[in-house]
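User: Hi! I have a protein structure encoded as tokens and I'd like to know what sequence might fold into it. I'm fairly new to this, so please keep things simple.
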């Protein structure tokens, strides 16, 4: 039996983070969340995830802080990332692909199945 892929959710809205966890765990993944870029790096250092679901507009540092940090470490640079944001219209996937972003999801329009589909595709 294969071990479920560990997904790290970086989301400062606890309700949204918990919704993502329920959705991903119902699809067979294991998920946890942190609420800041700093907490994310601490978590990643001790338990590197298979994929990161990242809110773009975090309280404090935004997603680019974490994206830059991840890309500066060769052992972490390959972790696929899905950005979930209310600013999806302002972000072109080709502009953030250099950071390992595989998909940009619009929080206002996405459905739970959209997140699961994006995660499955990114982990292929």
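Assistant: Happy to help. Inverse folding works backwards from shape to sequence: for each of the 124 positions I chose a residue that suits the local structure. Here it is:
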């Amino acid at each position: 039996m294969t071990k479920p892929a560990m997904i790290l959710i970086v989301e400062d809205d606890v309700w949204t983070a918990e919704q993502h966890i329920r959705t991903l765990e119902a699809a067979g993944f294991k998920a946890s969340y942190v609420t800041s870029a700093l907490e994310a790096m601490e978590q990643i250092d001790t338990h590197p995830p298979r994929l990161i679901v990242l809110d773009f507009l975090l309280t404090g540092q935004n997603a680019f802080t974490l994206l830059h940090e991840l890309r500066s470490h060769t052992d972490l640079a390959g972790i696929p990332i899905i950005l979930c944001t209310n600013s999806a219209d302002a972000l072109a996937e080709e502009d953030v692909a250099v950071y390992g972003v595989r998909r940009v999801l619009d929080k206002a329009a996405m459905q739970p199945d959209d997140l699961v589909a994006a995660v499955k595709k990114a982990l292929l």
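A useful reference point when you look it over: Residues 44 and 110 are 26 Å apart (CA to CA). Feel free to ask if any position seems puzzling.
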